[in-house]
Write a structure and sequence with these properties.
The protein has 348 residues and is of the alpha/beta class. The protein folds into two domains: 4-127 and 304-334, Rossmann fold; 131-301, Dihydrodipicolinate Reductase, domain 2, CATH 3.30.360.10. It is built from 15 helices and 16 strands. The strands form three sheets. A seven-stranded parallel beta sheet has the order 3-2-1-4-5-6-15, with helices on both faces. Strands 10-11-12-7-13-14-16 form a seven-stranded mixed beta sheet. A two-stranded antiparallel sheet has the order 8-9. Helix 1 crosses helix 14, helix 7 packs parallel to helix 9 (213-221) and helix 8 (162-172) packs antiparallel against helix 12 (253-263). 47% of the residues are buried.
Length: 348
């Protein structure tokens, strides 16, 4: 039995991570709430599974026995991070997850002093959220050390998994977020729009979104003004701006439950679609004098990158002693880490 526990192993992304882990000769312990799904996943590879929910701290603690590292793949992470992170801190188990949720990054960051004391590494966002953007932000900071503004944007194809879709619905009620003068600020959905040019010469319209880098990139770079963007059709942007008037309705529990149930019915992209759909990421920084630097990056489909990025960090932590505390991907692995992942190419 390997001292790696994957919680939410039977979810869309969890299954992809388990499959690749097995290919790499790893034998993780699979965990989650659904006994039948875990048995079906574990049996072909003769892996160990642990079935438990997150309501009882003593139950979680028992299931942490013998573990060195937990990779949490069960979203929305606003619900699963707290009990699992606390269990990791109590049991001296490193905590990783694949979140992109700003509030989860903030919660994990607040655990830094305790994580240092316990010798526990806490690193949320080990996948497409936020490995490539965090590394790109660190590269841009190196190019312009006195940068005062950072912009990060991405164009991602392939469609969302059920978990990502549910998390997106939950996020609509909170509106947009940006980093302004060093502070997290609430802004409207689709607050700003602009266009980006893809590597093939085509242009994409984009809108600001509450992406995790408004938190993590500030930790990694100290740049006080950060906006995050995603490409979207003009129709989608118009709909989101209209939803700003209905956020009170989106906050209602019954409405959230209905919308998340609908969102959870999506199947997620299959293997062929993931192979066909890559991503492009843009980053720009500027300083108070108006000097600018920019970089762009091509990556595989976000779920494919999440698998390789997460397992690379897992293998590093299982093999290398690391001081406890909260880390961003670039702080732990270095800003060039993303360039070691399959299919990633940096463009000037």
């Amino acid at each position: 039995m390997m001292p790696l526990l994957i919680y939410g192993a039977n979810g869309y992304t969890g299954k992809l991570i388990v499959a690749e882990a097995v290919k790499r000769g790893m034998r993780p312990v699979l965990a989650g709430r659904n006994r039948d799904a875990l048995d079906e996943l574990a049996a072909p590879h003769r892996l160990t599974r642990r079935v438990f929910e997150l309501h009882d701290a003593s139950v979680i603690d028992r299931n942490m026995e013998g573990m060195q590292l937990l990779l949490n793949c069960a979203g929305p992470f606003a619900r699963t991070c707290e009990p699992l992170l606390e269990a990791c801190l109590r049991n001296k188990v490193h905590y990783l997850d694949i979140t992109g949720e700003i509030d989860v990054f903030e919660r994990c960051h607040h655990s830094h002093p305790r994580a240092q004391h316990e010798g526990v590494v806490v690193l949320p966002g080990t996948g497409f959220d936020v490995v490539p953007t965090d590394c790109l932000a660190a590269m841009l900071k190196q190019r312009l050390p006195d940068a005062s503004h950072l912009m990060l944007a991405f164009d991602a194809g392939g469609g969302p998994s059920p978990g990502t879709a549910r998390t997106s619905v939950e996020g609509l009620a909170k509106g947009g977020r940006a980093r302004i003068n060093g502070e997290l600020a609430n802004v409207p959905l689709a607050w700003k729009t602009r266009e980006f040019t893809r590597v093939d010469g085509s242009t994409r319209t984009a809108m600001t979104i509450p992406w995790g880098d408004v938190y993590t990139a500030f930790v990694s770079t100290g740049i006080p003004n950060i906006e995050t963007w995603m490409t979207a059709s003009p129709k989608t942007i118009s709909r989101l701006r209209w939803l700003n008037h209905l956020r009170w309705l989106l906050r209602m529990q019954a409405v959230q439950k209905f919308l998340q149930n609908r969102a959870g019915q999506t199947a997620g992209p299959d293997a062929a679609r993931r192979q066909r759909s890559g991503c492009q990421i843009w980053g720009e920084v500027r300083n108070a004098a108006g000097r600018q630097e920019s970089l762009s990056m091509l990556t595989p489909n976000g779920y494919e990158l999440t698998v390789t990025a997460s397992l690379g960090i897992v293998q590093h932590l299982l093999a290398t002693p690391v001081a406890g505390g909260y880390y961003t991907p670039s702080k732990l692995m270095g800003m060039d880490y993303v360039l070691t992942l399959p299919g990633v190419k940096l463009l000037d």
